[in-house]
Amino acid sequence: MAVIRLTPRTSTPAAGPQHAAPPRRNWRRFTPWLYLAIPLALLVTFTYVPVANMISYSFTDWDGVSPDKQYVGLDNYAQLFTRPELFQVFFVSLFYLVGSFLQIALALYFATVLSFNVRLRNFFKGVLFFPYLLNGVAVAFVFLYVFQPGGTLDTLLDFFGVDAKIFWLGDPDLVNISLSGVSIWRYLGLNFVLFLGAIQSIPAEIHEAAELDGASRFQVFRHIILPGIRPIISLSVILGISGSLSVFEIPYIMTGGSGETKTFVIQTIKLAFQFNKMGLASAAAVVLLALILLITWIQRRLIPEERTYTP
């Protein structure tokens, strides 16, 4: 008799498409940070760490060489605002501040004029932007010959019948005006290019509509160009104010920062490397940084970043 053995039948899964879980790709989230790692490391190493060290040095009496630093608290900041010879450099910056506003006005005027169809406008664009391409040291040496007695400027005045021997860099009443004039000529091209690019970004249809309505060029400037480039004007004001506080190369090369021409940066460098007062110089640099940040914040609050092409 045959014995039949019954074995349990195991159930097999039904054949069908199997949905495998997609591999985790969380590493993609870190890809941008991998590209930013080196720039951020350089930024922290060469910007934020030196600023932090500068702030710590500003509370000490240190000569920059000795390993010992004596903590003096806010004494360095008190000296900056109580000693007249240290505080008067702020008044020198007023000449460059007025010059920066004059420079912005001239750049805006030339950019507006050259945005219209005028003859030789490409030539004048190059003429206005060319000084900004020159090295600042070379510009300072050139203007040393321009302002010297019997130099280029005196010769030009003699050609027009003005017989006056003026000590442009020796007269305390004229030296800062002369130096700020060089700064205006040097950086006019930068603001000019910024304004011209902003004006050309305004849609041409708005200009055409204004011309069809019979608007004059002044009305186009007032109601279309000026509101349209307001953010660029705001940027130029920030650059002008910060630049007037941090003027260095032109007065340092032309006059050595002597007498009435000593600017904030020149004084800071002399305190640090000539008189070995690194703590006081660091306090001056912190004050300069705080002033620029404060002015930038106030300007941003007063002039919001709005872009509009209609009044």
Write a brief caption for the model.
By secondary structure, this protein is mainly α. Helix content is 66%, strand content 1%. A hairpin with an 8-residue loop joins β1 (60-61) and β2.
Write the layout of secondary structure elements.
Layout: H1 31-57, E1 60-61, E2 70-71, H2 75-82, H3 84-87, H4 89-115, H5 121-133, H6 136-147, H7 152-159, H8 175-200, H9 204-212, H10 217-228, H11 230-245, H12 249-255, H13 264-273, H14 278-302
Antiparallel strand pairs: 1-2
Helix pairs in contact: 1-14, 2-14, 4-8, 4-11, 5-8, 6-12, 11-14, 13-14
Question: Judging from the principal axes of the Cα atoms, what is the shape?
Answer: globular
- In helices, the fraction of residues equals 55-70%
CATH fourth-tier homologous superfamily of the largest domain: MetI-like
The CATH C-level name of the largest domain is: Mainly Alpha
What's the number of helices? 14
Number of domains: 2
Name given to the CATH architecture of the largest domain: Orthogonal Bundle
Per the CATH scheme, the topology name of the largest domain is MetI-like fold
The averaged pLDDT comes out at 83
Percent of sequence in beta strands: under 5%
Distance between the ends:
109 Å
